[in-house]
Input
Amino acid sequence: MPRTSKLDAVLAAAADLFAERGYHATTVRDIAERVGLLSGSLYAHIDSKEDLLLRIVRQGGQDFHLAVEPILSIPQPAMQKLILALAAHMRTVAKSRSIATVFLYEWRALSPANRDQVLQWRASYENLWTRLLDEGVRSGEFRPLELSLTRLFALTAASGLHEWYDPEGVLSVEEIAAIYANLLTEGIRARP
Amino acid sequence: MPRTSKLDAVLAAAADLFAERGYHATTVRDIAERVGLLSGSLYAHIDSKEDLLLRIVRQGGQDFHLAVEPILSIPQPAMQKLILALAAHMRTVAKSRSIATVFLYEWRALSPANRDQVLQWRASYENLWTRLLDEGVRSGEFRPLELSLTRLFALTAASGLHEWYDPEGVLSVEEIAAIYANLLTEGIRARP
DNA sequence: CCTACCGATCGGTAGG
DNA sequence: CCTACCGATCGGTAGG
Output
């Protein structure tokens, strides 16, 4: 009784192709070929091509939420939690790069109703970060910040990893995340 | 003798549609309709759909280069030049949002040969930023930095503006750029 | 710049 | 899961 169903294989193939070429540039025949099927046979596993996209985006939203949400409630200073959250976010991008790319960009290809749904998941995730930043401002660990802009600044930079991360590269995700956290908290200006 | 040829109108329509829906989700019929033509008539102005994409991406590359390159040689401290460059980059994103989006993301839809060309333009632009950061490190204005990672961090955050910038929003590009520059140089940690 | 069209390919289905 | 197919639409062209 294998844990990996055919559907899982289809989802993985679709995520890779959507991330690599984009949703609209990927055909159901491409996806079917990757899993050794003919295009018609895919429809025994999925409802439609868009259904596939929605499932992948949902998975991405879950991955990020599950990685970061638990960090909010650990008994640590906000500064420490922010550093942990940044690493958790970037680790998720690196570990599930295709899914992360689809969650971060390709969700735009969804039809309006599904897009609205995704917008809510994204807002819920972004809200975790706003709370984290707010906590640090209130405790005096962070400067008074424009919360929305700071969240955009940090999250955009961290998510950008999906565009260039190379598992074979010299730096590990943990090392990159540590450098990014340092840039975010300390800035680039030299201090006496 | 109007300065705006039909080709300019076609390019503008294509940039808007490529940015909004993506290259593959946009049809030549969509573009033709926006400028009041039938799809076949477009081909009096362009060679192919991909030709249109390449022209827009090239324009984007030029816009960014022309905005930032002159700043490198002005007689100012690196810190000041970095702040100016960040504002110039973000102003370019805001002013030509569609073109910037196509330059930043949709270039992936190009065929391999054209993609290689774009990769060179991008590398040339990124090199301006590496030089700027290096100058500040050498002068002692910036901490010792991992140049590539810092460039990615700063440029990814700044470019992210294209995803959410609203010309009708409460904050102007200049205000957003100033806040971003402050985050980049000072970090978020409170200081005594 | 339009009329009229083309071959190719798309997402998806019926019936087994 | 395959065979055999479908209507729709795609990028692009010929001839005026």
